[in-house]
Amino acid sequence: MSGVEHPLVRLWARLARGEAVVAGVLSGTSADGIDVALLRFGVAGRPAPLAFGTRPFPEPLRVALRSALDGATLDARGMALLTRDLGRAFGATARTLADEHRLALDLVGSHGQTVYHHDGLEPSGGATLQLGDGDFVAAAAGALTVSDFRPADLALGGEGAPLSAALDPELFPDLARPALILNLGGIANVTYLAAEGAPLAFDTGPANALLDGLARLTLGQPFDRDGAAAARGRVAPALLTELLAHPFLDRAPPKSTGRDTFGQPYVAGVHARAEALGLPSDDLLATATELVAASVAQACERFLPARPRALVLCGGGARNRALAAALARRTGLPTSASDAHGLAAEAREATVFAHLAVRAVLHRPSTEPGLTGARHGGVLGKLSCPPIRETTPPQGPFP
Ligand SMILES: Nc1ncnc2c1ncn2[C@@H]1O[C@H](COP(=O)(O)OP(=O)(O)O)[C@@H](O)[C@H]1O
Ligand SMILES: [Mg+2]
């Protein structure tokens, strides 16, 4: 034996004492920046939130990522460089936030950047790819890292998404059931928290991937801040009806989707239809915002076992006032941002990956058939160790 304590043994001891500092880190489908949530965990009880921040990607990486997400072909070299550089950026960002708060990281849960996620129609079965290699995360963060959570769910027959739903019962313990949690990231996904029994979760369709794409094309801005353009515009009913006819919206759950269905080519198609109809940009943003709200409302009516008592919004889209208003109107449900229930709307996804990393190192399952369709009992994620700092020389023979 080398005499160096395994980092898992140290981590378990820190968890047992309720002292473990855990970072959840990710960039969502919007790729708007790197989110980091820091929490203090024990093996039981509610973890304490310590800090949250969203930091920009280093500029050359942001440019490379945006072009990859917008459809530029990535060869093997491009992929290798991107997964390395994203891993470094995720690890460094987690480390920086921890340093700023004078915290030593015990564990990082790193989701990575999704560059491909199946839409359920792949004839050979689902597949997913998140870039941001966990070994580079661990080296840059200087902490044990769990990464690449989704493939295990797929390997157990699941959709690989939405994973955050497994944590929603823990994240919203005090919410009156049934309740609907709606995450407004690049894609919109819901978790239905039933009065009794396991939650139900699925993607409802496009959200900010569409709204941001249109804002870039028509407003020359990264997003429609506060939904101001949408609020000025008028919904075009003919275009809305056309967009609501997308086959993904019709499919029953479990279902998940991503940029391959609702990414750049989809956005360009919606933009082209609006140009053909002569729609001003505000009306186009109003119509696309209405589509997001209508697709969620339609999913509520068709796919939920009972009417929720409340709609709770999280993700960056919770800050889009026009969208929040359209959701309240279309669903008829009392609607609030998750901040009102103890969790900052922006922090939910990163918080989830901190939780999932703790589950992984404690060998606790995170899959449920009702959530992603995976068999029960899957432990998600892959483990990467930080560099060993001790200089103990190797002592052979090894066992
Ligand atoms: N003030 C705001 N007004 C409108 N939209 C906003 C606002 N703040 C954030 N957003 C939206 O939220 C997105 C980021 O949301 P996020 O939850 O990080 O998505 P993802 O998980 O896909 O990265 C932005 O790209 C933007 O569309
Ligand atoms: Mg984001």
The appropriate CATH architecture of the largest domain is 2-Layer Sandwich
Q: How far from one another are the termini?
A: 7 Å
Q: Please count the beta strands (DSSP E, at least 2 residues each).
A: 12
Q: Count of helical segments?
A: 16
Question: Average pLDDT across residues?
Answer: 93
Assembly type: single chain
Low-confidence stretches: none
Question: Helix share of residues?
Answer: 40-55%
Which range does the strand content fall in?
15-25%
Strand/helix succession: HEEEHHEEHEHHEEEHHHHHHHEHEHHE
Class inferred from helices and paired strands: alpha/beta
> What hetero molecules are in the model?
adenosine-5'-diphosphate, magnesium ion
What is the overall silhouette? Answer: globular
What gyration radius follows from the Cα positions, in whole Å?
21 Å
| Major sheet characteristics | 7 strands, mixed
Number of domains: 2
Any idea what the CATH superfamily of the largest domain is called? ATPase, nucleotide binding domain
CATH class placement of the largest domain:
Alpha Beta
Here the CATH topology of the largest domain equals Nucleotidyltransferase, domain 5
